[in-house]
Design a protein that fits this description.
The radius of gyration is 19 Å and the shape is globular. It is α+β, with helices and mostly antiparallel strands and 239 residues long. It contains 3 helices and 11 strands; from the N terminus they run H-H-E-E-E-H-E-E-E-E-E-E-E-E.
């Protein structure tokens, strides 16, 4: 049985993937239908949010992808809009901790006005690009265009799970640079369902920092705790 799966599993997976990607346009839902079901899915999973703690690791790389800093943060979330954090470990250059603090402070600010950054027609225009497969999961790939110049909105693409209609990945460039000091910013966010909650579980961000050159920040969740319950995070996906 094991040998049979090893031999035939990959070809069958490839054929299934090819069949999905080659679906006739007439069988696909409209962009409006995809967005409506995405909104329903998001509403459902937001209602399932509970207080939790996540251990998150950050790594900052400088020129030639040399590691400059490693930071571990403990983040406590209490729905619907409260988040606080502590820096548990900082190894290497202090700039890593400075950047991580800025990111986490920004996340807390976003929570206080989630509707302003929701992936919805209130903030974005959408265009269906094609069907795709992400981590063996059939998806709808949509173009994402911000309706205003806002550093918290991304100009890019989203991958929507074709079965759950949850966003699996979001990537692009900020609609407005957050600072004169950084340019050529590219951000990729990965999402998973954890304990019945739809959460961002990984981040990769690259930017050209004036005077310092190209830098890349990679973050992934290591462990989640809900009361006495603890679980390992989903496998890290590198954008």
């Amino acid at each position: 049985m094991m040998l049979s799966y090893t031999v035939w599993g990959p070809p069958l997976l490839f054929l299934a993937t090819a069949a999905w990607a080659a679906q006739p346009a007439a069988t696909l839902p409209s962009t409006e239908s995809i967005l409506a079901r995405m909104h329903e899915a998001r509403t459902k999973y937001r209602a399932q949010l509970r207080a939790y703690q996540v251990v998150r690791d950050y790594q900052l790389f400088g020129k030639e992808q040399q590691s400059k800093s490693e930071v571990t943060a403990y983040i406590h979330y209490v729905p619907p809009d409260m988040q606080n954090f502590t820096i548990h470990k900082n190894k290497g250059a202090n700039i890593g901790e400075v950047i991580v603090r800025k990111i986490l402070e920004g996340e807390s600010e976003i929570l206080t006005n989630q509707s302003a950054t929701d992936v919805s027609p209130s903030n974005y225009s959408f265009r269906f690009l094609r069907t795709d497969v992400l981590n063996h999961q059939p998806c709808y790939l949509l173009e994402l265009r911000p309706l205003r110049k806002d550093a918290k909105l991304l100009d890019g693409r989203i991958w929507i799970d074709a079965s759950t209609y949850l966003i699996l990945r979001m990537e692009g460039e900020p609609a407005r640079a957050p600072s004169w000091w950084v340019r050529n910013i590219h951000v990729a966010l990965d999402f998973h369902v954890v304990h019945g909650m739809w959460l961002q579980t990984a981040l990769r961000s690259s930017a050209n920092v004036r005077l310092l050159g190209e830098h890349t920040l990679i973050a992934h969740d290591v462990e989640y705790k809900l009361g006495e319950l603890a679980a390992a995070a989903a496998p890290v996906t590198r954008p």
